[in-house]
């Protein structure tokens, strides 16, 4: 759910018309609804009152977003030293930070140890050995979970499916017991959990439950063999509605998991990203041209794949709505909505039936709050978009639009 809705033919974010924001801050622009963000944080907290909920920072890493979530008691699931820096700057406490990723560098491990984060989600034995050495050098102990790969098919897009045997993530179930006993013997490692994350944009409960049963069995086995497993981190992955998907609600997942938790002396950790932030944001873009070729009708907009990569990267669907409904009675038309970038993959929609659009119209690309701005780049030397946070009838710029000077600020001319 979200707080973007039409009132008198005008699309609003909470109590602010999106057309007004576009007129005042320009386009392209990301607009987030604080009310939606807080609502989603509370839905997770209510469904899992005992759990540690760590927002996957890679979904939306703006420090205002992280700060808002931290105030709701949500921690951070980080995958880099950069995300650690952001989370701390946003006010996320170290005891609410977990650190995943297959390629943690030594300096990133050291930074996380110095900050005394809650847990490393370790993805290989080599990484474990490095964490042991860095922890020893810093005269501290690293709390860890091993990320295990339950070999469960998340039935999602192959690029965001991570829990299969062939994926690069985690350690295999076959060696998990042995690896846990190895970790347990290391002097500067404290084993405290099991981690898994099987993929993103999951729209059914079954893969979660299948994975959880496997993790649960491993936990019971480890506990019986004297390893103190206290945390089960089931990762993120709950999907959202982009088109017609009906993903499970956090409460449904909680109910399905509850009976499997009962006899476990463990606290749950969850790492939702998309489910918290996805429907919190829209991407506003302005129609530059309507171009009719022999084959097709194109709507050329001022946003592009560098701003919002999901359609070109995954072929994903985003609902696209005019911020002012066309009341002229013109027929809807089938169009491709494309950006100005020199790639044919630069599109937001193909063969989409849209209300008639004209030069200057503002379109809202819905469900752009997760993996939107965070995946943006400067490709084609396009300054990155402004980010805005709406709060009831007010809004605030939470990241200014990049300037042309920003584009070259780290570059040097030859002497
Ligand atoms: C990406 C990721 C998440 C978040 O996934 P969502 O589908 O956005 O909920 C959580 N944990 C890990 C380890 C991830 O890589």
Automatic annotation (TrEMBL):
Pathway: Amino-acid biosynthesis; L-lysine biosynthesis via DAP pathway; L-lysine from DL-2,6-diaminopimelate: step 1/1. Keywords: Amino-acid biosynthesis, Decarboxylase, Lyase, Lysine biosynthesis, Pyridoxal phosphate. Its EC number is 4.1.1.20. Pyridoxal 5'-phosphate binds at residues 237, 271-274, 371. It catalyses: meso-2,6-diaminopimelate + H(+) = L-lysine + CO2. Homodimer. This is Diaminopimelate decarboxylase. It comes from Desulfurispira natronophila. The gene is lysA.
